[in-house]
Amino acid sequence: xxxxxxxxxxxxxxxxxxxxxxxxxxxxxxxxxxxxxxxxxxxxxxxxxxxxxxxxxxxxxxxxxxxxxxxxxxxxxxxxxxxxxxxxxxxxxxxxxxxxxxxxxxxxxxxxxxxxxxxxxxxxxxxxxxxxxxxxxxxxxxxxxxxxxxxxxxxxxxxxxxxxxxxxxxx
Length: 171
Description:
This protein is α+β, with helices and mostly antiparallel strands. It is built from seven helices and five strands; from the N terminus they run αββααααβααββ. Strand 4 (151-154) and strand 5 form a beta hairpin.
């Protein structure tokens, strides 16, 4: 019934694969429309390559946009070179890579441990300086300083106080 008509139309269909620049397209159409379909596909691939038009009329517009971007980049580079290293940049660079141990070393240099300090006081001072470390991290770093004989630990478990050793030089 209808099957002979579909099998006849299938024999008239042509299937081709095109490769053009970065595109690969497979086309299936009737033999009579093949030429127009291939031309349409090729022109569509040319005009949509990477979203850029290849028409000469758009070249001046693209050139002006490029010049505008270049001038913006130059003004930003000029501004950066005039500013140099500001206090904000220095402050941000100091915060980068500050480990808990490094912060405790800074506290040592600032004579923070000249008096006996509890873990809570030390943790609060680190937080006051803008760093958020867990109390356990602070505790582990303090234990390392005690093992290295930089600090002394006075008191009992869960109630230790840390103080700088008298024979330790901080320079």
